[in-house]
Amino acid sequence: MSEYNGEIRKMMIILSKASIENVYAAFVLTNGARMEGIEAEMFFTFFGLEALHNKKMEHLHVATVGNPAMHMPTMIGGLPGMEAFATHMMKKEMEKLDMPGVHEFLDILKASGVKLWACKLAMDMFHFTKEDMYADIDGIITVGDFYKYSTGIGTHMLFI
Amino acid sequence: MEKTIANKTITVNEEGYLTNFAEWNKEVGEALAKENHIDLTNKHWQVIDYIQDEFKKESPLSIRKIGKSGVVDIKEFYSLFPSGPLKTATKIAGVPKPASCI
Known about the structure:
The complex is a heterodimer of chains A (about 160) and B (about 100).
Chain A: E1 10-15, H1 20-35, E2 39-44, H2 74-77, H3 82-96, H4 102-111, E3 115-119, H5 120-126, E4 139-141, H6 143-149, E5 155-159
Helix pairs in contact in A: 1-4
Chain B: E1 2-5, E2 8-11, H1 26-35, H2 42-56, H3 63-67, H4 74-80, H5 85-93
Antiparallel strand pairs in B: 1-2
């Protein structure tokens, strides 16, 4: 008889987007899992890879177009400088909350025991190499590998 | 609710956190650590001292802040207090559970 009570034991978090709100949502959920004693691994795929890319990670933006929560007309959101302005405002707010920058957040996740995986297919598609990426990633893997690492009772998977 | 630990009656909330820091002493801390399967070393005590100092200063705690404390780095913090370090360390230190998400 299994004594599993339904608790979450491991979170597998897939990040497929590069807008700042999605990246931070993924980071906070991952870090929050570790803070609760839950194991956590992240899989960076498609645009999510930008959060691992050395030259791009500190230049992520908030989406001002196609984002209804910005409460601005799409035409306005598309004006030059609008995205930079909204990003600047959001970063200022995050700083007040003691939110680290992307690189420091990755350091915190690694120090907390999180595994960081880059998607092989997406790496090939964007012509990224391992040298382009955050130095401490755990590897470049396939979807199949990721599923294999997800084995275990109490594992949950989240796609962002 | 009341709880007797290390020959002392303390008041704790439903999660086991002390509701009155004045009821904490080192023996209570030792006993709470034992309940959480942790043998306290010197390093643990340094972290507990730091957490209590921050609590007295009413300065909110986060993992990031612990990492910048100069007392312990994040990796070591996780190895000292496995399975939820901030939660466990604050419980042993007799201070409220931090409301922080980072």
